[in-house]
Structures are given as C-alpha cells and as structure tokens.
Amino acid sequence: MDYLPLFFDLKAKPCLIVGGGTIATRKARLLHKAGAKLHVVAPKVSEELEKLVAASNGKVFKQEYDKTFLNDVILVISATDIDSVNSVVAADCHAIKLPVNVVDSPALCSVIMPAIIDRSPLIIGVTSGGEAPVLARRVRSMLESSIPAAYGQLAQLASKFRQRAKDVFENGDLRRRFWENILNGPIAEKVLGGNLAAAEQLIEAQLDSASVEKTGEVYLVGAGPGDPDLLTFKALRLMQQAEVVLYDRLVSEPILEMTRRDAERIYVGKKRAEHAVPQQKINQMLLELAQQGKRVLRLKGGDPFIFGRGGEEIDLLAEHKIPFQVVPGITAASGCASYSGIPLTHRDYSQSVRFITGHLQEGKENFRWSEFVDKQQTLVFYMGLAGLETICSKLIEYGKSPSTPAALIERGTLPEQRVHVSDLAGLAAKIEGLEVHAPTLLIIGDVVRCHEKLNWYK
Ligand code: SAH
Question: Where in this protein does the record put region Uroporphyrinogen-III C-methyltransferase (predicted)?
Fold first, then answer.
C-alpha cells in the first residue's frame, strides 16, 4: 500500500492555495465544502475563488508566492500552471514538514487528493496514487451510481439513534441485528424514498418495544424491454437486495443475472392464453413470502403499471399492510420507439399517443375502433402479433387510410431486434413466412415515416 487513507478535519482551519485559476478554484470548492478557512496567494485570482475565500473567512493575497505564506497554515495546495513555482512550494513545505498537495504532480506531494463520493457523513475516497486517475474516476462513477444519493440521510439517521439503540440493546449481537434490519429493510427504503419522518417513527416503535423483528417487503420492479442498460438505478439496487425473485417470461437473461447471486429464483411467466402460474397464485405467493420476513422482488418486463397487472399484484399486499415499492421501468413502447428511430410524437405528424392492448378477446368487440382513426395520433399495440391482421383490417374498416405507415418491432432493444415496416394494408402480408419472434410491438401512424431516416445509425 503506497498511501494511508486518512480523513482530514479542516473545519475553520487555515489552508493555503497557491494559484488563482480554474484548478485552484476547483480545489478551493472542495476545501470550502470541508469547512476550511481558505487563504489564496496568486497575482490573478478568479472571481469565484475570491467569493469562496470571502465565504470561508480567509484572505486573498494578489501577489507572488513566498514562504512567509506558509506560516500558520495546516495544509497547502499548489495549483499554479508554472512548474517552477509548484516545485518551490513543495520544497518549502517539505522543509518544514507541512502537508502539501501539488495538483497533477504526485511526485511533489506529501498528501494526495482522492476522487470523492460525498454522502456526508458517509464519505468515500478513491485513489490510484496518481498512477491511473481516469480509472479512479471510473471507479468513483461506478460507486456514485450504486450508492443512492440519500445514503447520507441514512447515515445521519443511524447517528441520531445510535445512543438509544445502544441503551436498548445492550447485547452486541442483538444490536447488530437491529441495525442490519433497519439499514436493509423497509425503514431504509423509507429514507431513500424521501420519507424521513416515517422512518424515524418506525425506528422509535422498534426501540420502544425493544424487539428486533424482520419485516418483509415486496419490490414491484419494471425491468424495461430487454436491454439491461435500460434498468434504473433504483431497480438495480433493489434487485441486488431481494432474497427471492419472481420473474416473468419477458425478463431477459442478462437482467436476471443482475439479481443477487444467492437469491431464490421463481419463474411465474405467462404466455398468451396459457398461464404458467395463475395471477391469484402469484399475488398469494408475494404475500406469503413477505409475511415470512423476506424481501421479495417481483420483476416484470417493461413498466409494471402498463399492461403488467402491477395494480392487481399490490392490491392484496396493501390489504395486508405489507410494505411495497413500485419502481417504474421503461415500457416497450418507449424502448422500441427509441431503438428503431420512431418518435412516438412528432410536431409534424402526431400530437398524442395511445397504448392499446392487442390481446383481442375471441369474438368480443372490446374496442371502440372509431376512437383510433385520428391521423394525428400514434397507436401502439402491445400483445398484437396474433391479432395483427384483425387489428389492421378493423382500423381500415373504421376509416383509417390503408396507406397509414405501420411498423412491427420484434424483440425491441435486444441485440436480435428487427423492424418490419409497411402500411396497414400490407403489414400482415409482409411478415408472412418470416419467422417472427415474440415479443413484438406494433406502432401505427405517420411517425413511422421517420424510421428510414432516423435509424441510419444502426
Ligand atoms: N409491462 C410491459 C408490457 C407487458 S405486455 C411494458 O411496459 O412493456 C407484453 C407485451 O409487451 C408484449 O406482447 C409486447 O407487445 C410488448 N413488449 C414487451 N417487451 C418487448 C420488446 N422487447 N419488444 C417488443 N415488444 C415488447
């Protein structure tokens, strides 16, 4: 290990920055955040830097550096673009054993600055010791995206109840279990969802009853249309937290791979007209698993509230007061549209868009087809492959022009995506004989004209 990471308490302590340009300003912002009293010496000083110095109760000296500026400061940052000045500052500091950081010159430094993830009071520093700063920054962004922004609040909450928990749970094991439950379960989720007051109430209740109970929770998560990169941060976090996963046929393998390794996986997928596990049974399973204290992930394709029966699945949970969260996902319409160069609305072609189920019930006229004929409206049919021919001919029958452009997007956003473009009159014939794989999405309207031009990049 080339360096020992330490965290420096700079509150109200005098620090010196040599230099007055962009880099000096950037460093000053950091030091100011840590509460330092900033002094700056440089012939020219940026406006923002002057303000930061004033706000920190420090002083700006518009002149050349000399070593008298080192008196009474506890940390020095040299951020000039003149190498000779940086070297002199470093040498002067080393001579009196004053910690010094010279920007971009690890060899001249006695302390180096890490890339920082700030979730105060939780602070993470990442460094490569100056060997690979781009890599260190990359690690930082990985951590940034996997540690929710509200983790700071979680840490504050833990700090607020630390002493009480110590008093209530004298036994160290019990206390640890208490905190594990708090930081991993519904209470933490309340904090991350922005409801600090509710989280505090729940902690109070547990401390009052001096009991450590494991409460289950259900996460109803939209996994998007297939490409794992379209998951949300929140989806990923909950996926890695749940102990049991109930997933659908539409959830792609690479996405499933991103759930917790040791999680139990239960397939409850449905195919058209063939229910692997009846909906009622799924609802019941979610309830029972959560009642056993498990964190249950219900992973669904696209968005759970768009043709996803999400509402039905949480109904029973709400009745039984089981905590749950619903995480939106990118719905197939958005995913397929973006990945095929078909904007769902466009000022020239369409002012509204309608998501419609194409799951036509045998023999039943369950649509008001006449509502679909408006030329300025994009129609998106989910589950429309089996009924494709009927959908197209009904639309024509009710007055839509047979030449209205129509696209069938097959396995949208996945590497195997294919887009079949035609018009209402010709689409069914166009795909005849082709082996079209589910899932497919049907987009109808003048916006489909954009496909040819906007899809060039693929
Ligand atoms: N909740 C999902 C939709 C579930 S209904 C969502 O918001 O996307 C299932 C239908 O969604 C499929 O029949 C198909 O029409 C559509 N679909 C889902 N994923 C798709 C994909 N990757 N490509 C094309 N269509 C998709």
Answer: 216-458
